Amino acid sequence: MVPTGNAHNTIGEYAIMKHLITLCLLVFLSLSAFSQGNFGTSLHGTRAGKQYWYGQANGGFEGLTNVPITQLGCVECHSSKNADGLPYPTPYTPGCVDCHPSNSNFNPDSINVAQCYSCHGRQETEALKLGYQDVHRSRGMKCWDCHTPNDMHGTGTVYSSMLQPGAMEPDCQDCHATLPATHSNYDPPSHNNKLHCSACHSRTVLSCYNCHLESQIVGRKRAKQPIHGFVMLANRTKDDKIYPMSFQSLTYQGIAYVAFGPFTSHTITDSGRVCTECHVNFGGTNAAITQYNTTGKINFATWNSSDSTLSWLRGIIPMPMDYGRALKMDFITYTGNPSDTVLPSKKWVSIGKDTWDGHQMFFATPLTKVQMKKLGFDTTLTTDVKVGTAEVPTEFVLGQNYPNPFNPATTIEFSLPKATTVTLKVFNLIGQEVRTLILDQRMDAGVHKVSFTMDNLSSGIYLYTLRSPQFTATRKMLLMQ
Q1: Is 273 within the bounds of a domain?
Q2: 20 lies in some domain
Q3: Is the peptide bond preceding residue 244 cis, with omega within 30 degrees of 0?
Q4: What is the SS3 assignment for 240?
Q5: Fewer beta carbons within 10 angstroms: which end of the chain, N or C?
Q6: Domain boundaries, position 414
Q7: Do 360 and 406 share a domain, yes or no?
Q8: Confidence (pLDDT) at 30
Q9: Which pLDDT tens digit goes with each residue over 112-147?
Q10: How do residues 252-304 score in pLDDT, each as one tens digit?
Q11: Residue 455 and residue 462: Cα distance in Å, rounded?
């Protein structure tokens, strides 16, 4: 029997459809393979961010503690179960099942935001533990509605941190390219397009205050508490715009450390801030600026020993140019057994410091003196301790040596608010003097630098102590031969 023309058409359509399905499947498999090929370079695959911040190569806390990150159990960040609901194997290697259930064909509808929260704990705290609203979440948007496949699966370029330019693709203007005409009332031309949307529309940033490293070493992720209700502002390196910033503070055996960096808040509001929340020179009230103008300091976080509670400033905290001198926060430590179950506790005490022994600020810079003045800071009080100025410092300060770690040369800076006699010596960890840099020398008020070498000495941690009749301070530094 000879097939009819309609039969020929049906067979032809079926053949074409079969080829199309095969082609689509091949394209899908190719894209999946391409994505898998790049996954090893993604931050999800490398987990490089933690090492970048903590490692001694970048002046991280490891340089002061000498505790490698592999001992902290936080390199392989994951929850107790994978996307299939099964416990992670040991040893663990990052892979697709971290986010995608097996046999889901990578359908976005199969992803659970809880899997994202299992590593991105601050976002979970914002949304679920503190209950902050976000206009995107309120509209039913999920993490992957903003974050591109390149963000999650990699592009072939290896990044050290998600804050590094190029590592994360989305930004507000991707969707909000056109703004209402009234927007200029709140973001006037005088801002010169230097104010990022989130500086006004982020309700809060977040920090888990004071990580107790002794607990982390034994597998307990312990901080005093999450703190919120504030937004630090700095210049983001990525686009040179004013951007929210947060921090992570840490202590270990009496050593205090803090790391600052841009923070992308997921607490976005429809209506932004008004000018007077930042500009005291426009008649506004800002506790941080008021403190600075009154005392030359910003007491950001204060430990209350009488009831074992922490208080901190709320609202906008502009990061002044001399934050290394001006910004104060009480550092605390846990007095219980580091292996204790992590629960809200009052077993915390001050370590007696409101300044850090070491710190980082990456991918951001503090406000300039010009920017500070525009907000109403009294910049006659501003002292650039880091680079030195002709202005007289307001207090004794022993700075962290730089570079640190070093080999074999480094520089120590210190500030004297008055002329005095100074001795500066270097010791090893058993208290033996290895260098005398300054001995009973009369020095003028100001910022002083001492550069020296530590050759012919073995690698390790050394202490340097500055003494005067009015002041004594000691810091650690790391020599790497």
Answers
A1: yes
A2: no
A3: no
A4: coil
A5: N
A6: 397-479
A7: no
A8: 44
A9: 998 899 889 999 999 999 999 999 999 999 999 999
A10: 999 999 999 999 999 999 999 999 999 998 888 999 999 999 999 999 999 99
A11: 13
Which residue from 163, 162, 263 is spatially nearest to 205, judged by alpha carbons?
A: 263
Cβ-contact 311, 302 below 8 angstroms = yes
* DSSP state at residue 242: E
How many residues are there in the chain? 481
Task: Tell me the C-alpha distance between 398 and 106, whole Å.
Answer: 54
The amino acid occupying position 167 is A
CA atoms within 13 A on the CB side of 173: 6
Owner of token pair 């659970």: 112
Q: How far apart are CA 319 and CA 243, in angstroms?
A: 11
Residues 235 and 303 in one domain: yes
3-state secondary structure of 287: helix
Residues 6+ apart with CB under 8 A from 74: 50, 216, 221
Give the DSSP per-residue string, 115-145: HHHTT-HHHHIIIIIS----HHHHTT--HHH
Average pLDDT over residues 424-432: 92
Do 285 and 401 share a structural domain?
no
Distance between CA atoms of residues 454 and 299, nearest Å: 36
Q: What is the pLDDT of residue 3?
A: 39
From 381, 416, 438, give the residue that closes a domain: 381
Q: How many Å from the N-terminal Cα to the C-terminal Cα in the chain? A: 90
Average pLDDT over every residue of 325-349: 96
Residues 151-161: tens digit of each pLDDT: 999 999 988 89
Q: Which residues pair with 467 in a beta bridge?
A: 423, 472
Predicted confidence (pLDDT) per residue in 313-324, tens digit: 999 999 998 998
Interatomic CA distance for residues 304 and 284, integer angstroms:
28
Q: Which residue has the tokens 């989130």?
A: 198
Q: Which residue has the tokens 């070093």?
A: 406
For 18, the token pair is 């079969």
